[in-house]
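Q: I have 364 residues here and want to know how they pack in 3D. Can you give me a structure?
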Amino acid sequence: VTCVDRKDKRGVLMKQKALKNVLIRGIQCAVPRKIVKNDYFTSFFSNEEIEKSSSMTGVKSRRFADKNICTSDLCVSAARKVMYDLGWDPSTIDGIFFVTQTPDYRLPATSCSIQEKLGLSTECAAFDVNLGCSGYVYGLWLAANLMATGCMKRVLLLAGDTISKAVSPKDRSTMLLFGDAGSATALEFDENAPEMAFVLGTDGRGKENLIIPAGGFREQSSAETVVRCNGENDFRSREDLFMDGGEIFNFTIQRVPPLVKILLQETKKETSDVDFVVFHQANEFIMKHLAKKLKLNPNQAPSSIGHYGNTSSASIPLTIASELAQTLGNESKTVALVGFGVGYSWGGAMVELGPLASIGVLEV
């Protein structure tokens, strides 16, 4: 494994070449059974506001988790399915990587609860990773690095969010955009596995543009932080998700095309060599802009946002499982995974996927 750090004027890019010995065996996703279509929001927003948002984001429906369903529940369902399909005995799993920004608790780590629910060995390593939009790529990078040496043979990468629980119902910039989902990716040590390549970056100066300001330890919960107040274009509290869409768009257009180009350079590929580029499903306008900028044809950039909304860290595996299941269940494809957003944080991975023994979407 070779790592190269390179600083630029607005962040740090880390390129990692030739990560070997890690095979993706299956990708299962789980979504809540509750489908929320745009007409649900007519009691909060005007038809004109809903239509304007839908035309920009591409979201026609999304899934919202009930009060008693957490991200971990969705990921556990997906994990059980992928373990069953692969015939994995729970005692053979060496690690759980749980990527989310909607954990069950502030402490303990939710991954510890997941270990118990899945009946895994007490020798299984388990920890949480607090990342959102780039989280799936980062989680894959982290898990694959620890597995590449052979110290772990089987790992479950669980990524998801139930962001609907963190938005104000009267904030059209977030309420109409986000949906809930969880995922489970089964990784196995295999000396014959194709190589993976990663490019990662961070710029914390963008943290204020996609944030839940209060409720942590910097600004703890209080009677004042839960009060929802009228703003210029919203009605939210300091414990609701805030998003500056314009700034997020500017960041994406500045950072993602160079990210993909560097990933292609590192793997000595042209865009025509890549079967699919799976973007984080930020919104339809952004994804179309990126596809055009990178000169991708429509078939190269699958989209799931219309049916599921922006599902944060689950959006990349959900797009794979919902849009590419038939293809990747039967053959191998070269796939670029591109995550970007909250943090600011961004990451790209070039992987060979398929044929996968387990791939699909469950309703919970």
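Q: Anything worth noting?
A: Residues 94 and 123 are 7 Å apart (CA to CA). Confidence is low (pLDDT under 50) at residues 1-5.
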